[in-house]
Amino acid sequence: MSFIQVINPNTNLSITKTIDQVVRSTITSGTKILVVCAKQGVPSIEGHFDEAVATIGVLEQIKNGEKKGIDGHIIACFGDPGLLAARELVRAPVIGIAEAAMHTATLIAKRFSIIGTLSRNLSIAKSLLQQYGFSNHCTAMHSIELPVLALTEDKSGSAREKIRQCCIKVKNKDKSGAIILGCSGMALLAQELTKELDLPVIDGVSAAVKILEGLLGLGLTTSKHVDFDFPLKKSLTGIFENLN
Amino acid sequence: MSFIQVINPNTNLSITKTIDQVVRSTITSGTKILVVCAKQGVPSIEGHFDEAVATIGVLEQIKNGEKKGIDGHIIACFGDPGLLAARELVRAPVIGIAEAAMHTATLIAKRFSIIGTLSRNLSIAKSLLQQYGFSNHCTAMHSIELPVLALTEDKSGSAREKIRQCCIKVKNKDKSGAIILGCSGMALLAQELTKELDLPVIDGVSAAVKILEGLLGLGLTTSKHVDFDFPLKKSLTGIFENLN
Amino acid sequence: MSFIQVINPNTNLSITKTIDQVVRSTITSGTKILVVCAKQGVPSIEGHFDEAVATIGVLEQIKNGEKKGIDGHIIACFGDPGLLAARELVRAPVIGIAEAAMHTATLIAKRFSIIGTLSRNLSIAKSLLQQYGFSNHCTAMHSIELPVLALTEDKSGSAREKIRQCCIKVKNKDKSGAIILGCSGMALLAQELTKELDLPVIDGVSAAVKILEGLLGLGLTTSKHVDFDFPLKKSLTGIFENLN
Amino acid sequence: MSFIQVINPNTNLSITKTIDQVVRSTITSGTKILVVCAKQGVPSIEGHFDEAVATIGVLEQIKNGEKKGIDGHIIACFGDPGLLAARELVRAPVIGIAEAAMHTATLIAKRFSIIGTLSRNLSIAKSLLQQYGFSNHCTAMHSIELPVLALTEDKSGSAREKIRQCCIKVKNKDKSGAIILGCSGMALLAQELTKELDLPVIDGVSAAVKILEGLLGLGLTTSKHVDFDFPLKKSLTGIFENLN
Amino acid sequence: MSFIQVINPNTNLSITKTIDQVVRSTITSGTKILVVCAKQGVPSIEGHFDEAVATIGVLEQIKNGEKKGIDGHIIACFGDPGLLAARELVRAPVIGIAEAAMHTATLIAKRFSIIGTLSRNLSIAKSLLQQYGFSNHCTAMHSIELPVLALTEDKSGSAREKIRQCCIKVKNKDKSGAIILGCSGMALLAQELTKELDLPVIDGVSAAVKILEGLLGLGLTTSKHVDFDFPLKKSLTGIFENLN
Amino acid sequence: MSFIQVINPNTNLSITKTIDQVVRSTITSGTKILVVCAKQGVPSIEGHFDEAVATIGVLEQIKNGEKKGIDGHIIACFGDPGLLAARELVRAPVIGIAEAAMHTATLIAKRFSIIGTLSRNLSIAKSLLQQYGFSNHCTAMHSIELPVLALTEDKSGSAREKIRQCCIKVKNKDKSGAIILGCSGMALLAQELTKELDLPVIDGVSAAVKILEGLLGLGLTTSKHVDFDFPLKKSLTGIFENLN
Predict the structure, then answer these.
(1) ipTM
(2) Would you say the C-alpha torsion A99, A74, B174, F98 has a positive or negative sign?
């Protein structure tokens, strides 16, 4: 039985709960699951500075997870903070949710659009498209210009409605076959929007779970040859001592 | 219980048997499997002409499969012949094994190398790298310069040894973190080479099975919006009548 | 005296007649011409599935043409179906009309726009741009959202007017120096639109004729070294026996 | 009857004679020809400075040619000096021989190699590949490290033999289907090397003649919309007065 | 004390004066400055033909400058005419103002927009973006559709206001962090627009001065190895004799 | 008088001293300098994990520097760790040394090679090339396969000799006009190697100083519009409290 850890890189419990809900409805029987958030850091991630801080929180949980016998990790923030560093740290495979959503979209549509929170986050997503190779597959990126936390505190449903209207606009204008929801805080909307729009609306959290289950099923782990080799042994000092 | 069809685009029973063996050792309990080969066409696929012919055989089996209630299809030849056409034909997701291997490799290594049969086939793989977005992730492509059937009739093990030597060379020279075996006829070698080399050696057939199981688990199907919409209704004539 | 075969990949006689008209007004004295359509297959080509079927019809006519002593072939559908396979099949040069139009446009303008039938066909044209190297030369692609056959049955002239209006819009907005008509069914409009707009409006059929005449004049044939080498000898079965 | 001018951008009569020989053996009956060289400038072109000087000589001849009723121009130096400026200056189409060779090569082979004189010239060719869109079609560039004039004063045939040996190496190593001779001074070797190697060896001069004859046959001229519009009227001073 | 020459490639004294003003307000104490314009050529530069002519004027001044002991050169026209040729001609570093503006923009913003004079000039800027590597950093290019001289004869301030309005539009729509003024004639506006918009508006002239002062401070000169090696010695004839 | 802070992202005092030496020999009179290293973290940086840790140390010093009135920052490790996050954190410009070296190299040579420590670090440099836009300008990357600390403890001079030999090989083989030393620990070698090889050997530390002095001279600061806007105010917890 494989054991997967899903890490919310921010410290927000409400988003962590959303992630937990999505993950539990996605896992295959036979997969054990642990959903955690960063123990310290930022309550939400908007921009490179937030990502830099969140990365350390991710790496701590990767390390903790390894001690618990975790077989594979998911980083559940759309900027995939700490993904490459995490791949060095352990042999267990690590998947980011932006990566997962993008990979998945290209398997069922030629072109996709991304709906994100703030423009500054979409500029990070744009770098990921380039890094992963999917720049030509992305037709357009749209931001609803709401901060991440507006999604978790959306009692009136106005954020939800903004995302829905954006999806409708994408379908009518972008010539994209699929839509990616560019924030883990949007994850619960994917299924209902898929149905309403009759077009795949992809959430990276569930996509990452399936990709990771697949890798574990294949017995594949992160390559330790050259690029993702373990960090060279060196003594970390100060606040990083717990990462030794 | 999901029902997957794996289509060997050529008519070669020996390769079909290899594929069958790999698939059966890969599927998750709860997945029903059907491995078929093209009913007519070419005994092996080396080049664009062979692919063009094989594509029709693939589409026939996609159509047959649909009648049988297939939930997802795999095209088990490294050139992914007919992949885009098949995605139009049915709503069920369709995965190619080159695509699957390349996606998988980028999730556990930054860079990969491909080992293929003939140079002309690698030139097709090069186009796929560009189409899928992975040109920058592929460090090098190496051909063993043996036709596909040399793999199925390899009683002396010399083809196998050639592949093994090529893998060793890749590990020492290419700075690639993973190796992709660029022919379904090589699929059975992936696991043992992974162990011997201590570096992921990826076979697209098993990779495709896992990706497809994942998509089915997510309830995602090929987008019918714009690019992969069903073919417009029109009457096919002549030898294509069975595709109506 | 060189002998050129122009193949309409679909079975539509009306489009074949249009192609024939364009070709006859284009050939240089000293070129013998044969215009044929696929003997079997699809009446029009919209999408990858149609292309896959049409490809076989193209290859049959390539093979037939070879027996008749054809010196060079043109594939007269804007998706260039079967182009790479055809190049393997014979030594005689083979030119696609999308390819021809794109090459020609870049020789008289820095940037061009494409006007096509349906969005799904333009998504195929986009792949060709990437394959041929002209992605950066194409400013925009516009679809009139009419199926191919609306062009051949255009008694009211409304399709023609839609194309004309689209050309005017391109000239005013796209900063493109040339326009490519993205369907052989539009071929007859190129000359009059060029005059009206005072900007080159390019039809791939006539462009392909000239390119092919040029190659024949140079004595150049498709390279049989590596990528386009003849298909390896193998016995084709079933409906493909006539391709043996 | 169309009237083509071929401009050797340098002042070297020996190269001009080579070009003249190639052109005369290439033109179709019905094409009138004028081969000229720059009236002033550099005796051979190696690098950007030489190109800058040669460009003026080219533009002078373009202007002169226009007065003589020239229908189309060819710039017969592999760096295509002055090509874009010349396209502004006249409505008649203008073709560069590097451009012509590269376009032609991609129509009969997937990939080509270039054999040039000096490394610094190949670095210019590399920019042209990027500008024209063919970077991915060029497998390798090889310099024989001889200046241009070594080709015209090759009594011993040693330059010719160096080129021949380089072609053989390309065929055995590069996986390229075609070879481009990257200097007009090599033009006469193309046909014999094509025969000896059984692989297309392309000379840009003859390729340009055929492309230009084709454009003239189509009645296509350089687009005057936006990018290649005529130079704005302004008074040139000093040594440029003859360009007014 | 380093000695910098700034070359206005056109013969316009008004633009030269603008450049002079910008340069003098930018240089560091310890830098001696010489601002010149082409002695002959075109009064303004719009398009490739104008650039070809201006290039010779630039090269003459580069050569003159060398005799005067100039340590570094700036080419002060946004198309960077003659830049690569000038780098061959002397060992002293040479910087173009388009190049300088683009480099500078990417150091303080992820993405920039360019505001230019005519569309045909922006098409040249687009090639420079590709050549320098910054295509992905440029969000959009906007032309005010006024010729260069409208900037120098802008008594009513209407050209200035057009540029200002365009900047405001960029800030509101383009998601660009910086704006590049794409003409040396706009150079004086950069500082005030930066202040008004609270977003960096970059002028290439001052940017080039600082880059060049930096290179001189590092003791770095143009590499003479391979690509920018000195022109091979050859006798220039006719109007180019002064370049010998 | 401008005040620059140079941050060594690792905690190694020997490398910090090297950087200090280089910086002091580079600054212009009128620039005040502060060279610091990370207060906590890793003693050397080899790979993504080390970079993630070092990034926090960089951000702490950026924040400290701001309190001290620093006008501009340099991140003196060749992977440019924390560069984008630092640009969000303050308005003062921030320059990375890889960025600085690459920008500088393209201004004096068409193509450059990079000499680095370990292959895994060069794979990070490869991503930077893509991010900054210089992939096409880099001919080759060579690693000496020594860890960073071998450079600081190089009493025998064997590391230095390895670098020198590698430079000689680059000059003879790569057709690169310049060499970039890909580690701040190599910075002191640049000048002497430039002299010995008669080809620019570029060290990013000094290059960054000059670029930063230039930006400060222009009065340009990091754009706060969209991408690099200040981090949204949120309360950092745990070990990150000092970053609040």
Answers:
(1) 0.97
(2) positive
CA distance A131 to A116: 18
Do residues B6 and B74 touch, judged by C-beta distance below 8 A? Answer: yes
The CA distances from residue C176 to A216, C12, D85, F217, in Å, are: 51, 32, 18, 40
Distance CA F102, CA F136 (A): 12
In angstroms, the separation between the Cα of residue B152 and the nearest Cα of chain A is 23
Beta bridge partners of D33: D4
Residue D89 and residue D80: Cα distance in Å, rounded?
Answer: 15
Q: Given a cut of 90, is residue D153 above it in pLDDT?
A: no
pLDDT at C154 over 90: no
The closest alpha carbon to C119, from B90, A177, A199, belongs to: A177
Q: Contact at 8 Å (CB) between C97 and C79?
A: no
Of E108, E206, E223, the CB nearest to F93: E108
Per-residue pLDDT at D89 exceeds 90: yes
Q: Residue E36: which H helix or E strand, with range?
A: strand E31-37
Q: What is the pLDDT of residue D29?
A: 87
- Sheet containing strand E201-203, edge to edge, reads E138-143, E112-116, E178-181, E201-203
Q: Which residues of chain B have pLDDT under 70?
A: none
Q: Which residues of F touch B110 (CB under 8 A)?
A: 123
pLDDT of amino acid D131: 98
- Nearest-10 crossing angle of helices B204-218, B97-108: 90
Among C123, C136, C142, C145, most A C-beta atoms within 10 A, so best to mutate, is: C123
Chain C neighbors (3+ CB pairs < 8 Å): A, B, D, E
Dihedrals phi, psi of D20, to nearest 5 degrees: -60, -45
Calculate how close chain A gets to B7, using CA atoms only, in Å: 17
Give Cα D168 distance to the centre of its chain.
23
What percent of chain B is modeled with pLDDT above 90? 94
Cβ neighbours of F123 in B, within 8 Å? 110-111, 175
Q: What's the CA gap between D39 and D143, in Å, rounded?
A: 29
Give chains near D: 3+ CB pairs under 8 A. Answer: B, C, E, F
CA of E202 vs chain D CAs: smallest distance (Å): 25
pLDDT digits (tens, 9 = 90+) for E166-217: 999 999 999 999 999 999 999 999 999 999 999 999 999 999 999 999 999 9
Contact list in D for residue C198 (CB cut-off 8 A) is: 224-225
State whether residue F233 sits within 8 Å of chain A by CB.
no
| F123 touches A at CB < 8 Å | yes
Kindly list the structural domains of chain F, giving each domain's residue range(s) and its CATH number in brackets, ordered by start. 2-96+206-243 (3.40.50.12500), 98-203 (3.40.50.12500)
Mutation target to probe the B interface, by most B beta carbons within 10 A, among F123, F131, F143 is F123
Taking alpha carbons only, the member of A173, B228, F26, D28 closest to residue F4 is: F26
| Beta-carbon count within 10 A of A57 CB | 27
Whether B110 sits inside 8 A of F123 (CB atoms) is yes
Q: How does pLDDT run across B105-147, given as a tens digit for each residue?
A: 999 999 999 999 999 999 999 999 999 999 999 999 999 999 8
Q: Do D220 and C200 touch (CB under 8 A)?
A: yes
Considering only the beta carbons, identify the residue of E103, E110, E191 that sits closest to F103.
E103
Q: Count D/E contacts: CB-CB distance under 8 Å.
A: 122
With CA atoms as reference, the chain C residue closest to A109 would be C123
State both tokens at E50: 């104008």
Contact exists between F and C (3 or more beta carbon pairs < 8 Å)? no
Give SS3 for B147: coil
Residue E165: count other Cβ atoms within 10 Å of its Cβ: 11
pLDDT tens for each residue of E68-110:
999 999 999 999 999 999 999 999 999 999 999 999 999 999 9
